[in-house]
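For the sake of transparency, this paper describes our internal protein records without simplification. Because each token names a local backbone shape, the row as a whole describes the fold. One such record is reproduced below, unchanged from the form in which we store it:
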Amino acid sequence: MLDVFEAEDCAIVEKWLAQLEQALAQPGSRTLNTLFLSQSYWRDVLALTGNIQTLCGAETISDAISKRSKDVGLSNIQLELADIPPRQVTRVGTETIEAFFTFETNIGHGRGIVRLCPDSVDGGRCKAWTFLTALEELNGHEEATGANRPTGRSYLRDFHGPNWLDQRREAVAYKEHDPVALVVGGGQAGLAVAARLTHLGIDTLIVDKHERIGDNWRKRYHALTLHNQLHVNHMPYMPFPPTWPAYIPKDKLANWFEAYVEALELNYWPQTELVHGAYDENDKRWTVTLRNGDGTEKELRPRDIIMAAGVSGIANRPSIPTLDAFQGRVVHSSEYQDSDDYAKKKAIVIGTGNSGHDIAQDLCSGGAEVTMVQRSPTLVVNVEPIAQLPFELYSEGPSLEDCDFITLSMPTPLVRQAHIRFVEQSKDVDKDLLVGLEKIGFKLDFGEDGGWEFKYLTRGGGYYLNVGCSDMLIEGKIQLIQFDDILEFTADGARLTSGDTLAADLIVLSTGYRPQEELVEKLFGAAVAERVGPIWGFGDELELRNMYCRTGQPGLYFIAGSFAQSRIYSKYLALQIKAAHVSSETSVGDE
């Protein structure tokens, strides 16, 4: 039973939803405009627009909702009470009533969140500050999970036919048929979207260049653990065991990837690399060439390609004058594994992002003499508590699914504001660390454009979540110089502007990665790359460019990001692909 305050909040939300339905039933009415604050946000995830998009401002939102709701048949808007009733919460410093609701459209079942705040210029009347509408299921094409799992007469045994293992081997081999969807990359993003597609009935094959499932984590440097806690990093359908440590070690995670593929019956070809793809406009299919580890090639014709190669695609190896004079070993951070070979040797790490710091710490801990080279100012926060603040929601009580939905509902401008606030908090909480770094000449960046999260979303780096390397720098265990301090590289290291020589046996280039569009051009050609355009980052829009959505190239999609991003957005990418298949099949049937 709701308490008095919950009942009051419930009444406010029910009144607002009723007014919304009344306004939608009166085309041309300006009533809808009065239900939103002047500075408000509507994020639609496939439900009304068929896209992932965010609109701002009462008039813009009301005009768009009015038009789209009529086109898709928005109806049966119902307040949710069972799991999370309407409640007063604080989001980005704003007190608001947050409520979940459900609805129906012509194509499926939807769910939403509305946040109501009093409008001071309209007598304190509660209006929408944020409004989310998201498609959750396609009518007649629900995920084959839970009550919808396959049953039939599976309890009967065919003593002369293929058993489950025979069927799995045949499915994975693709000897007599092609996959409908090809996922390129077997990391968290690739596994998540493949799992979603498979459980929507789309025959999906994952290919990955590594020898073993999970090697994209297993082969990283020895001491690596995830930088955020377990409860944020679950995979779809199969959460991590509650006995696991808060910060997951890389090898434990890699082994879980193998178990995940097996448990969810995902089709996966390791040691397989996509080398070329061409799209047939008439047949609406790709012809792709895959190269196996032994050098043999195979051609497949999938309908869709989902690029899940990550934000970190092609290693960025900047042209550094005189570096070719160095006679020691030069590796990119993506090639670095551990410090065993460099005990009592000298190393230079160029770059002060997460990878640069972690590799420097690993080398130093392994007995190497390490110097870090800073190329540009870097945002630094301690991994605890500041770096965990964005995920506090996940430890507050709502289910993982509800936390993900709340995360989905936050529009980009408000997420940006939240992260700027986290960095401001870090200036106080991490004060001793920051002062110590400044004293040794480390150049700090305070992420005025959106903190470390937006550095990741726009450039894939430029920050460090401190797990000890900053302390080692302050203590002098790791040396620091600026890139401008290097006059030139020599056969045995670097000559500094001071006249000193910095000897080295190893130079690690922690210099990030090239834009994903370069990988697209390499695999599919310049015309496809131009058709797709920029990938990742925001441009002038409020959604990531060409991520988790249809692109300018039919049949080509992209997914990347953290475990949480992959878990959340894999669902909506899979729904878009399934909807496209259903639409195509319907069109053919109509003909």
